[in-house]
Amino acid sequence: MRRVTFDLDVLRSFVTGMELGSFAKAADRLGRSTSAISAQLKKLEEQAATPIFRKSGRGLALTDAGETMLGYARRLIELNDEAASAIHDVELEGWVRLGLQEDFGEAVLPEVLGRFARAHPKVKIEARIARSHELAEWIMSGSLDIALAWHNGATLPYSRHVADVQMRWIGPAKQIETSLREGEPLPLVALEAPCLLRSVATETLDRAGLSWRMAFSSPSLGGIWAAVAAGLGLTIRTDIGLPASVRAMVPEIAGLPALPKMALFLHRKEAEPDPVAARLGDILLQAALEALPGSARGNEVLREVA
Predict the structure, then answer these.
(1) Alpha carbon distance 67, 50 (integer Å)
(2) What ranges in the chain are assigned the alpha helix state H?
(3) How do residues 265-279 score in pLDDT, each as one tens digit?
(4) Nearest by Cα to 204 from 262, 264, 260
(5) How far from 237 is each of 102, 229, 260, 281, CA to CA, in Å?
């Protein structure tokens, strides 16, 4: 089998275009012409010896091979950038304050801390796990340098849209006898108010004309998982960080209304963060994208292509 060495510049253009949803935007960000990006994508398909893109309506979407390539491309670029940082940025010192929404605490934080600590052992990180509205408030007050949070309606000046992630109805992993009978209100499990997902659940059911009751409320995500696993009711989250004791349900089969997508944002305290916060932000963004379901991180149709 012919051994192939992929061009990292080509892979970076590919990943940037997929993350921005447009290779025209990728060209602007990378300081290249759209024709140069087109040539790079053609080179990538030639090196891969298989189609990376397929026609989808008026745009392009990834083939199965393209989705596989995107995952490897992210990893190769990440390792390249980590090596460059370890060699050239060893002088980075200081501390940085990081905030994460609860869903990303276990799914992303260990990976982020590990990557950053390997490249920059002299930097200290203060991490906070909290709800989206709290993270937004702390960014605005200057108490955090960067934060990964669901969009809660507040407009922050220095934010980057990461992805739109599908919300899901979550039930117990095992079939459990519950007190729910046909015609009875749907039992809900949710975080204590104010809670973005709690509001989405009740408003969605109200619009569908379905009655509901709040069966269990908890201040922590761990309490939510325990209640759902025990069969006390259903909750809504995303596919990110689900424990083995619960599972995402198919709305049509369960007779539940479809849920909207939720926007994920990376917030920054400043327009131009210092080198420490900027580097941690890059690693956080990469880890978040890797944690997202496939449909949210690379299977969307590209409406604008070079």
Answers:
(1) 12
(2) 8-20, 23-30, 34-48, 64-88, 104-107, 109-119, 132-141, 196-207, 221-229, 251-254, 275-291, 294-297
(3) 999 999 888 888 888
(4) 260
(5) 11, 14, 11, 24
